[in-house]
Specification:
Blueprint (H helix, E strand, L loop, with lengths): L33 H22 L1 H6 L8 H24 L5 H5 L2 E5 L7 H15 L4 H4 L10 H6 L1 E5 L5
Antiparallel strand pairs: 1-2
Helix pairs in contact: 1-3, 3-5
């Protein structure tokens, strides 16, 4: 006789201003679906577009307001903008486990052991997300087929997204 599936529960995690005292048991945590992940990603994408627009002003000013056309200078500008993207995600992931988009869609990022992410954990997840998202988002779509509902970058970085309870 097959066993019944284990019910999944929404994590009632303390607000970002109150750090968790002990790790969260992720075995019973509700894993967000693809649509919720995509909605948070879209929200963060809009915020990142504005942030990258502002960050692009500095290189333009350094080049006299002209577009950067030199190959080495373009590469340096692209690396600078990639660093800006990492700082956005890394800061939020290591300081509360939520970007603004994740907060709006009630998602929280934790390590696989239930602890908050450190900067090195955030870097590992960020680097794992690049190959997961580049081939048409196949690494993200993988959560539809994964037995635990995890995307490639969740597995590669040993981190998990969990659904948080609605705030009162």
């Amino acid at each position: 006789m097959p066993s019944a599936p284990i019910p999944r529960f929404v994590i009632n995690y303390p607000p970002m201003s109150e750090p968790a005292d002990s790790p969260i048991d992720l075995s019973q945590a509700a894993v967000p679906g693809l649509l919720r992940r995509l909605a948070a990603l879209l929200y963060d994408g809009l915020l990142l577009a504005a942030l990258l627009f502002i960050a692009s002003i500095l290189p333009l000013l350094a080049n006299g307001g002209e577009a950067i056309t030199q190959p080495l200078a373009r590469l340096l500008q692209q690396l600078y903008l990639l660093l800006v993207i990492f700082v956005y995600f890394g800061w939020h992931w290591s300081h509360g486990g939520q970007t603004l988009g994740m907060r709006a869609w009630r998602l929280r990022l934790l390590r696989a052991d239930g602890q908050p992410l450190s900067w090195s954990d955030a870097l590992r997840r960020f680097l794992a997300a690049i190959p997961a998202l580049l081939p048409l988002g196949l690494g993200l779509l993988w959560c539809l087929f994964d037995r635990d509902g995890l995307a490639w970058h969740d597995r590669l970085s040993a981190s998990r997204l969990v659904l948080t309870a609605k705030s009162k």
